[in-house]
Amino acid sequence: MKKIIDENGRLFGKISVIDILVIVIVLIAGAALYVKYGVLETTNIAADTAPVTYTVTVSGVRDFTVDSIQPGDLLYDKNGGGGYPVGTITDVAFSNAKKASELSDGTLVMGNVEGRYDVVLTVTADGKISQGRYLVNKTYELNVNSKRTFYTKYSTFEGVISGIA
After folding, report:
1. C-alpha distances in angstroms, 95 versus 28, 41, 58, 78?
2. Are residues 83 and 58 part of one domain?
3. How far apart are CA 121 and CA 155, in angstroms?
4. Which residues on adjacent β-strands are paired with residue 110?
5. Do 63 and 143 share a structural domain?
6. Into how many domains does the chain fold?
7. Cβ(52)–Cβ(127) below 8 Å
8. What is the CATH number of the domain that holds 118?
9. pLDDT one digit per residue (tens) for the chain, 165 residues
10. Residue 150 C-alpha from the chain's centroid
């Protein structure tokens, strides 16, 4: 009766176990490349981009932050943009910051906050709408009411994406 593995480490005396492992690894790598480049539809479709306009609301910042944000500045996301701009600021609107205060009778009133401003940025970027999702730079997803840390060349601030047009 023949042994399955002989004294030289060959299966049935013909092929080495290491040769079989190398062949299996090459087959797995070939199958992975076929799936990545031959089967998945998203890698074969060129991304059609269109301008996406969205607004970012920044609350309670000081005057030097307002002065440092200018139309034409590139906007970046500190944690999610991958170092690429997530749009260009096309408009900056600001107003006195408001805060709810409670009076002695229990009613709430909105009052101005001294030295603070609320800023609304209008941002335009090349994006794609895919299955109801707005994507900028093919990976950066825009979600209304998401709070993010943004930055420009001269300032860093927290803002909320308040609308997508």
Report:
1. 60, 47, 11, 25
2. yes
3. 14
4. 100
5. yes
6. 2
7. yes
8. 2.40.30.110
9. 567 777 777 777 777 878 888 999 999 999 998 887 776 555 445 557 889 999 999 999 999 999 999 999 999 999 887 789 999 999 999 999 999 989 999 999 998 999 999 999 999 999 888 778 888 887 889 999 999 999 999 999 999 999 998
10. 12
Same-domain pairing of 108 and 33: no
- The two tokens of residue 32 are 């992975």
Place of tokens 């609107």: 93
Asked if 16 and 86 sit in the same domain, the reply is no
Is 1 inside any structural domain? no
Phi-psi label, residue 34: left if phi above 0, alpha if psi -120 to 50, beta otherwise? alpha
**Maximum distance among all Cα pairs of the chain, rounded to whole angstroms:** 100
* 74: amino acid identity, one letter: L
The residue segments making up the domain with residue 147 are 50-164
